[in-house]
């Protein structure tokens, strides 16, 4: 089953078109990595898929349900607010800069949305949060505040917060870009474990070795278009397009 289906989306900021007729699908249990140089449209694509930006045209479906479709004039029309609220429950998003509430404890950062957005009972939300903290190796940090944590610990809390709402698909936008190499390993280990549990994930990353190891499928974007896509190992080890070859060579992946 396609959890996510994106068809022919376009997005411009004033005169600059940053997404040019992008289409992709994500199946249940799939791990999709999106790679490409800065300014290629990767993060904008994630923001459009998660309602942080609105597309100009094209359609997006979650679990077969429309989030946005084209009208007769080829313009994007979004679903009603009640439907969008339902669709928001299907995905979680992990930001590159953590985006934790600084004045909330770790535990409250994780339980805030389940209680106040999803309407979970406080006891249930606390139980889920503590279980997630155990999985992240942070059970002793429940009452700590973000400023008391390392960057790697903050990002693990951010992942736990996203998982607390039990999303169908988890989006990561450069989850290790704000971390030094040692802390990067912590986060890649967590994502690797989630992949082992068949969590559906879409990951924007520059970590080529990690993408090759964990992702099923890789999309290479440049200039707002999908230049090449394919099975992860094949694309990294035997790219077909010159732009892909040049990008990977610059990263030292080949």
Give an account of the 3D structure:
The mean pLDDT is 94. β10 (217-222) and β11 (225-231) form a beta hairpin. The strands form two sheets. The protein has a six-stranded mixed β-sheet with strand order 7-8-9-3-10-11, sandwiched between helices. A five-stranded antiparallel β-sheet has the order 2-1-4-5-6. It is of the alpha/beta class. The chain has two domains: 2-90 and 168-251, P-loop containing nucleotide triphosphate hydrolases (Rossmann fold), CATH 3.40.50; 102-166. It has nine helices and eleven strands. It is globular. α3 packs across α4 and α5 (151-164) packs parallel to α6. It is a peripheral membrane protein.
Topology:
Layout: E1 2-13, E2 16-27, E3 31-35, H1 42-49, E4 57-62, E5 65-70, E6 76-78, H2 81-88, E7 91-94, H3 106-116, H4 122-135, H5 151-164, E8 169-173, H6 181-196, E9 200-204, H7 208-214, E10 217-222, E11 225-231, H8 232-237, H9 242-251
Parallel strand pairs: 3-9, 3-10, 7-8, 8-9
Antiparallel strand pairs: 1-2, 1-4, 4-5, 5-6, 10-11
């Amino acid at each position: 089953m396609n959890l996510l289906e994106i068809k022919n989306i376009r997005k411009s900021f004033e005169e600059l078109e940053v997404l040019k007729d992008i289409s992709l699908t994500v199946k249940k249990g799939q791990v999709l990595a999106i790679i490409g140089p800065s300014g290629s449209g990767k993060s904008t694509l994630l923001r459009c898929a998660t309602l942080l930006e609105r597309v100009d045209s094209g359609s997006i479906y979650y679990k077969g349900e429309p989030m946005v479709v084209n009208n007769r004039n080829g313009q994007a029309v979004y679903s009603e607010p009640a439907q969008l609220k339902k669709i928001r429950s299907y995905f979680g998003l992990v930001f590159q800069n953590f985006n934790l509430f600084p004045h909330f404890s770790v535990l409250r950062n994780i339980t805030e949305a389940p209680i106040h957005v999803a309407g979970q009972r406080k006891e249930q939300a606390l139980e889920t949060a503590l279980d997630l903290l155990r999985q992240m190796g942070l059970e002793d940090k429940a009452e700590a505040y973000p400023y008391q944590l390392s960057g790697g610990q903050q990002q693990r809390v951010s992942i736990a917060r996203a998982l607390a709402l039990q999303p169908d698909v988890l989006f990561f936008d450069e989850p290790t870009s704000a971390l030094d190499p040692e802390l990067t390993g912590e986060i890649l280990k967590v994502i690797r474990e989630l992949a082992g549990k068949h969590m559906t994930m879409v990951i924007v990353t520059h970590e080529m070795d990690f993408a090759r190891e964990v992702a099923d499928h890789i999309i290479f974007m440049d200039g707002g278009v999908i230049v090449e896509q394919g099975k992860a190992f094949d694309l990294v080890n035997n790219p077909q397009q010159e732009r892909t070859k040049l990008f990977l060579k610059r990263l030292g992946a080949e």
